[in-house]
What we know:
Elements: H1 2-72, H2 75-85, H3 103-114, H4 122-126, H5 128-156
Amino acid sequence: MDKVRHNSGRFLNAVLFWALTAAAMGLLFLVTGLPVIRQRHTMEVMAEQMTARNVALYDRLDRLEKERVALLSDPFYVEKLARRNLNMCRAGEMQVRVTPTSYDRQRRTAERHITTTEPVGLSRLYGSMGALAEDRLLRRAALILSALTGIAALVLFGRGQRRHLPT
């Protein structure tokens, strides 16, 4: 009877061990596996969206090409296009030149708006990339702070300092 009890205890210990091992593996999967699966799913969704957008853009390109060919076959449009290229106007007609702004002018204008006396975060200066850089800086600062806290705890509560603490 004692042997049966002893064997059943071993069996229960083995079941408990494997149950705890399975629970730990499940927890490990939840912590490490699910974020990877979620990220992969979002990447697949983004790929599908980009593919759909690509198809829509190609359809639009085909439609615009057909419209261009149709316009070039229109004699009135061809005449207007030729007059515009030759800088010839009819009586009472006026042409307005549209000059695109240069990239340098846009950048200087943006810098003028950004330069202020108040401190500005990286996200305001550089947009979303600045937000990512700011996030990385905050993570590094938190990591350094936690490391310094751990070192301070080791120095203050190390083995040599325990006897000096009040009991």
